[in-house]
Design a protein that fits this description.
By secondary structure, the protein is of the alpha/beta class. The chain has 2 domains: 128 residues, Rossmann fold (3-Layer(aba) Sandwich); 173 residues, Rossmann fold. The protein is 40% helix and 18% strand. The strands form 2 sheets. A 6-stranded parallel beta sheet has the order 2-1-3-4-5-11, with helices on both faces. A 6-stranded mixed beta sheet has the order 7-6-8-9-10-12, sandwiched between helices. Strand 6, helix 7 and strand 7 form a beta-alpha-beta unit. The longest helix has 17 residues.
Length: 356
């Protein structure tokens, strides 16, 4: 199926090349996805942002997407878009960073936007969202809902974004339940329902009764529901796949950002910058709080409001690393944005060894 989706993207490009001259005057915008648009997670949400662009600028833009593009083989796909007249290209996975920069050097008149990266250039901007804010909230919910005091976490790759999410999740749980512990299984994939399901099964076998995830398919939540346990959706609302298990989900919302960046491009005002928004900027939302007692829901809503107002922070100082050493506090009573974006350590109390 994977080769078919890539082929479909190639055919879409060919169709664009054969379009009438009038259509070519539209701003051509390309997207590169690490998973299928039907993952109902990460890539699905980015594609909703793509569709929002088309709705916001009828007749002015033409969008193309390539899905299921492996990070290790992404340079070819990114260049394919650049060569075929796309003037704005969004590359939507961390591992696309170096390939994006490499292609951007060859096409200085094409503007690139890289999701979750930290390297920029004159024609390369970066953007991400403060997913860890939502993970602090779900950590608190998990800390209240667990009966075994063991929480399971299906992780993708040990990059700062994922590590910060695990830490925020644990600190949230710890803030309401000092007896809680978190066990982590690394699936080493962004999207592979089979591997994600196996990781969830391993965590359930270790006694976890609440499953969280930083992978893109609903498989972990489906395993939680099959076992009569609870869990959280990732990147989009996954409750249709686990209606009895899902407590809430962290929803990524790229639509406003994509519309804003497209307008700047159309107006000739695009420039390279870094964007990192969270609950307050509406780049992160929480799905409805379900399958939980009223007091837990009220707690979650209060925490969400406090984070959005800036009166609560997942990484309020002091923060201690896994060895018990206090982490220098470089923000105003909290870890600085730079510390969170580059987080490469577990906080004290996490029952796992961080892979190198």
């Amino acid at each position: 199926m994977r080769h078919l989706t890539i082929l479909a993207g190639a055919l879409a490009l060919a169709a664009g090349l054969a379009a009438p001259a009038a259509a070519q005057e539209k701003l051509k915008i390309g997207f590169v996805y690490v998973g299928p648009v039907g993952d109902f997670g990460w890539s699905y949400q980015h594609d909703r942002g793509r569709l929002a662009i088309e709705k916001a600028f009828p007749g002015k833009v033409e969008t193309t997407f390539l899905e299921n593009v492996p990070e290790a083989d992404s340079e070819r796909s990114i260049e394919q878009l650049a060569r075929s007249g796309h003037r704005l290209i969004f590359t939507t996975s961390f591992g696309y960073m170096e390939p994006t920069l490499k292609v951007a050097k060859k096409y200085p008149n094409v503007m690139f936007e890289h999701a979750t990266g930290y390297k920029r250039d004159k024609n390369v901007a970066t953007y991400s969202a403060k997913f860890h804010e939502g993970r602090y909230i779900i950590g608190q919910i998990a800390g209240k809902m667990t009966k075994s005091n063991t929480l399971g976490y299906v992780a993708s790759f040990p990059i700062p974004e994922v590590v910060a999410g695990i830490n925020a999740y644990y600190l949230g749980a710890l803030s309401v339940n000092p007896a809680v512990k978190v066990k982590v299984v690394w699936a080493n994939t962004w999207f592979d329902p089979g591997k994600e399901a196996d990781a969830a099964k391993a965590l359930l076998a270790q006694g976890a009764d609440v499953i969280s995830q930083h992978t893109d398919s609903p498989a972990p939540q489906q395993q939680a529901e099959a076992a009569g346990k609870m869990g959280f959706g990732q990147a989009s609302d996954m409750i249709r796949f686990a209606p009895k298990a899902q407590l809430t989900a962290i929803i990524d919302d790229w639509s406003s950002y994509y519309i804003e960046r497209t307008k700047l491009m159309l107006d000739g005002k695009w420039e390279s910058k870094d964007t990192w928004g969270g609950l307050a900027q509406d780049m992160v939302h929480m799905a409805p709080y379900t399958n939980m007692p009223p007091d837990v829901k009220a707690m979650a809503e209060a925490t969400q409001a406090a984070i959005k107002a800036g009166t609560m922070n997942a990484f309020k100082c002091p923060v201690f690393d896994q060895d018990g050493k206090e982490v220098p506090c470089k923000g105003a009573g909290v870890l600085s944005d730079e510390q969170v974006v580059g987080m490469n350590f577990y906080v004290k109390g996490i029952d796992d060894k961080l892979p190198k």
